[in-house]
Amino acid sequence: MKQVINHIIVCCLCSIAILISACKKEKQPEPEPMRVESFYPNSGKDGTLVTIEGSGFPVNRENVKVLFSGKEASLISLQKEKVVVQAPATGATGVITFMEGDRKTEIGTYTYQALSVQGIFPGNGPTGSHIRIRGEGFSSTTSPAVVKINSKKASVVSVSDTLLVAEVPEEAGSGAVVVEVDGKTAAGPGFRYQAISNVKPLTGGAGTRVVIKGIGFENIGANNKVDFNGLTAEVKEATADQLTVVAPVNLTTGPLSVTINGQKITGPAFTVVPPPEIFKVTPLSGPAGQVMTITGLHFSEVLDENIVKINDKPVPVRAATGSSLTLTIPGGTGNGKIQLSVNDQMIAGPEFKDQALGIVSMTPDNGLAGSQVTINGTGFSAQAAENIVKFNGVVTPVISVNGDGTELVVNAPAGLTTGLVSISRGTLTAESPVRFRRAGMLTIAGGPESNLLPASMSALVMDSKGNLFVTAGTAVWKITPDGQAKVFAGSATEGVWGGVDGTGTKARFFNVRSLAIDPKDNLFVTDMENVRKVTPAAEVTTFVKLSFSGGSISIDKDNNLYVTQSYNGITRIYPTGATEKAVNRSANDPCRPAIDANGTLYFTYDTYEPGIVRYAKNNTQSMLFNVSGYLDGPINTAQISYDASALLFDAGGNMLIMDKYNLAIRQVNFVTNQVSTLMKLTRGFADGSFSEAKMGSIKDMFLDKQGNIYLLDTDNKAIRKVFLQ
């Protein structure tokens, strides 16, 4: 009985084992289907090695045969993605068949002949690159060998019986390399064509994400070497037709390239630009639908390369230039920072308020107490008294408001100071995009009806105590801060002249033309063929005798003097009195030159031309403002009138130009490369805000330590003061 039970148990266990085994077999995955992608060469002799590429090939040789027209070939190598066989001897042209047991797969036709393409190197490359084609039977007895890549004819560089060198044609595309000799054709491995079709963006800086589109890239990022003018970039994403990379640190402007398997594809130049700068956003508050303008530098002219957010919410850019972006406020952003990213280079702007009330502009944006100002915006109350307007905290009443609440008219209040303008209505407050500047012009001394100063004034400087000095004929005049004027040195009497050193009115000048002043308040005067020195005590001595009649004179930070010499260059005079030629080209006498902190000279070269010459210490030179006119903007397109009367540099390194015939003071910012107008008046004589003031012909100008500008208005026999704050 015990034996019977044991037998039954064994039988049950066996049955269970069979069932488990059957289940396991059922759960085994299906074998990967075999797929043939290509084979090469497609012709050759007996013994030629033929490679079949694809996927899903069996790795067990037992059931595998490869037949050439029914004749079995020697199996050299069997791998999952590649099979290598040897064409059988005494074989015949026909179909290659891959056999796995009873399963047959036709590979393609193999031709027995002398012509054979057995390999290419490299297997990838761009237009113009050379590929070496290895094989047999390339020599021709009747006509040259023909090479085609993806059916496009390639130029043959060199040929022997076993080696061809060909140049990849334009837009070849990817495909088989085919050789034709004496009417016979042989196809080899596929060639992968590589090209860059588009790079976006083409400007930016370190950290900019750049998308490279093209053909023939590697799907694995590390197999694509991307460089920016020689610096390797990190590849973030890769497909066969697109790479996404991050521009590296320390990059410089130059070509972008992709290298794959040692083959380099050169694309367009990537231009390095600084991060964007925001100068002004208008308005800083407003409702949905209101147009917003952002002005600054280094924006992209391609719309989608400028990403603007308000309170982290994207706002589409409607129009773009390199210095201006136009948007429409969408509403619903809430209050928060304005952020701008240009090709992944970011900057934070001012705060924006999502509300009905906003200030778009002020006309004018400068003036004096009592100046009438028109404020444009949105959300103003039609009841004038409900709009509370403040100039830098000082309240001024509203004179009028238009019916749709978009325009207010006010007068700048007494006690005006430079600062923001605000408008409050109920619980809402809006601020102006820019400060309202207390700015205008006042007459310091003289005037058209005054005989205080002579009409022959030619140059102007100020000492450390606020005294002004002007040259006129054979005298140097001094004007005190309280407006008192008298001859300081020389003689104002007609016909009393000479080259006599001495003190005050005992000294004699031939013809004083220009002035410069050093930190110790010593004056230097050009006087015919002399440079005369006048101390604060009015002691006049001859500092240097010249070999020419001196024109305008300037002084640099090292106390070197520069004297123009009648369209024959500029001479430098050192503090020791030693002289040397600083500029060897024409320089206009009437315009005082300017010298920047690096010792670069700026001067006009002709009375009737608008150009200003930039002349560096190493004698390299360039020309600014080749076109006469009046136009602000980038230096390369801005315009000034001809015969500028004076040049100087302010504390910030900006050059100021007395644009005589435009009656304007122009500012050149060499950091931003922008030209702007600080003041533009009409002809005549009147003090007041820039919208009210008038002036005559300006002979010279001087800048004090507070940034105020003094003008020598010879038409009006006056010294005028321009204040900008």
Verbal overview:
This protein has 725 residues and is mainly β. It folds into six domains: 35-112, Immunoglobulin-like (Sandwich), CATH 2.60.40; 116-193, Immunoglobulins (Immunoglobulin-like), CATH 2.60.40; 195-272, Immunoglobulin-like (Sandwich), CATH 2.60.40.10; 277-354, Immunoglobulins (Immunoglobulin-like); 358-438, Immunoglobulin-like, CATH 2.60.40.10; 441-723, 6 Propeller (Neuraminidase), CATH 2.120.10. The protein has one helix and 72 strands. The chain has an eight-stranded mixed beta sheet, with no helix packed on it. Strands 18-20-23-22-21-24-25-19 form an eight-stranded mixed beta sheet, with no helix packed on it. Strand 24 (254-260) and strand 25 form a beta hairpin. The radius of gyration is 42 Å and the shape is elongated.
In CATH, the architecture of the largest domain is: 6 Propeller
Distance between the termini: 120 Å
**Which percent band covers the strand fraction?**
over 45%
**Contiguous uncertain segments of 5+ residues:** 1-26
Strands of the widest sheet, in order across it, are 10-12-15-14-13-16-17-11
CATH superfamily of the largest domain, called what? TolB, C-terminal domain
CATH fold annotation of the largest domain: Neuraminidase
